[in-house]
From TrEMBL:
Gene Ontology MF term list: methyltransferase activity
Native source organism of the sequence: Mesorhizobium australicum
Source organism superkingdom: Bacteria
Protein name: Aminomethyltransferase
Matching Gene3D superfamilies: Probable tRNA modification gtpase trme, domain 1
Binding site residues for substrate: E217
Organismal lineage: Bacteria, Pseudomonadati, Pseudomonadota, Alphaproteobacteria, Hyphomicrobiales
Alphabetical UniProt keywords: Methyltransferase, Transferase
Keyword Methyltransferase in annotation: yes
Length: 412
């Protein structure tokens, strides 16, 4: 029998390709528990990690956030350790907010820009001690950070793989953590950080989250991840603790009006076209910019844009008539002139209204705020139907829950 080498090579190539697809993404320290719970087998790639869109039912996962305790794996979130005598000065030079005001044991939301004032990313900066910080963000920035560190007595390294993270969110989240033995957690205020003993190590807890609800984020060494997961789920069994995927989390974050890099704005390092980048004022982050602190990346460009009135975009919240989500719909003025695009949109189950975040081209959204419309294409019986729906600019958050900031939280 004559062997067809060409066919053999083709089959070998196909098998190798299939293996590559199966093992393309990294698995977080919590992946064994997520895989065991997954009924959908619906995964996506988050910073190179295999992460679930949904585990069991995206609708019910959303309601787990709003009515009980939802657990979301944030281990793929990029994490940098910044430490040394000049750590505060370095972070102050890098980011928009005044880091000198950030006390040890606190965290704040911030962003950072390139020298042209274009936003590279946003994230959270944890001040673990006077000279030690953790920066958490969406994108990887190690080359940028290492270039920026020149002249500072500080070290920067990525610790994404070393540190596992869980977002524990929802009205019963504090009660679950108390039942898990985190004594005194009910006295933590928003953006507080506390360290609790756990097993042979410790767990760092911050009162933060991406849901606009009562919630906490837990960070632990990767070796203790599964033990932490099992401990939490045992403690939360009577209060309905459930694991969730990104689809549910995304709905909650839109209700809160939070933005996502490369969804609601294009990070400067990812922008292919020069007109796609955004300055802080163009994505609702103008409140972060602190001109009273020492020089920071992008300062002169941001000052110049404000002074000369060259800002081109604005990010707004929209309420849209009807109940058809308008994600990625074009926004028009008087139904004819293109004014911008919807970057995120849902029917809000909690707010009971059709909401969206939209990027508009000025003067729309600033001087021109009336007679706005969105063009939605809805699938109706195998045919797209064009819907022109009226939109009005509204404040964010679309949904505001008192329990998010209540201290101590109510025992739901």
């Amino acid at each position: 029998m004559k062997l067809d080498l060409s066919m053999t090579n083709v089959l070998a190539t196909r098998r190798a390709a299939q293996s590559h697809i199966e093992h393309l993404r990294l698995e977080s320290p919590f992946h064994p528990r997520l895989a065991a719970l997954s009924q959908q087998n619906d995964w996506y790639s988050w910073a190179g990690y295999k992460a679930p869109h949904s585990l069991w039912d995206e609708e019910m996962e959303y309601f787990a956030i709003r009515s009980q305790t939802a657990v979301f794996d944030i281990s793929p979130m990029v994490k940098y350790r910044i430490e040394g005598p000049d750590a505060e000065a370095f972070c102050n030079r890098l980011t928009l907010r005044n880091v000198a005001k950030l006390k040890p044991g606190k965290v704040h939301y911030t962003a950072w820009c390139d020298d042209e004032g274009h936003v590279l990313d946003d994230g959270t900066l944890f001040r673990l001690s006077a000279t030690r910080f953790r920066l958490c963000c969406q994108e990887r920035h190690l080359p940028w950070l290492l270039d920026s560190v020149i002249g500072f007595d500080v070290t920067v390294r990525e610790e994404t793989e070393e540190i596992a993270g869980l977002a524990v969110q929802g009205p019963t989240s504090c009660a679950v953590l108390k039942d898990a033995g985190l004594a005194g957690i009910e006295m933590m205020k928003p953006f507080d950080i506390r360290v609790f003993p756990f097993g042979a190590g410790e767990v760092t807890v911050s009162r933060t989250g991406f849901t606009g609800d009562l919630g906490y984020e837990l960070f632990v060494e990767a070796e203790l991840a599964l033990a932490l997961w099992d401990h939490l789920f045992e403690a939360g069994q009577l209060r309905g603790i459930r694991a969730i995927g990104y689809t549910a989390l995304n709905r909650a974050r839109i209700e809160t009006g939070f933005i996502v890099a490369n969804a609601d704005f294009i990070a400067a390092e990812h922008a292919v076209r020069a007109d796609r980048v955004r300055m802080p004022d163009e994505i609702g982050l103008d409140w972060m910019v602190d001109f009273d602190k020492p020089h920071f990346n992008g300062r002169r460009a941001i000052e110049r844009a404000r002074r000369e009135g060259t800002l081109k975009h604005v990010l707004v919240g929209l309420e849209i008539e009807g109940n058809v989500p308008a994600e990625h719909a074009i926004v028009y003025h008087r139904k004819t002139k293109e004014a911008g695009i919807v970057t995120a949109g849902i029917w809000s189950p909690t707010g009971k209204r059709n909401i969206a975040i939209a990027s508009l081209e000025r003067p729309f959204g600033t001087k021109i705020v009336d007679d706005l419309w969105v063009e939605i294409y809805a699938m109706r019986e195998l045919r797209y139907q064009k819907l022109m729906k009226r939109a009005k600019i509204v404040e964010r958050p679309f949904v505001k829950l008192a329990r998010r900031t209540a201290t101590p939280p109510g025992d739901f």
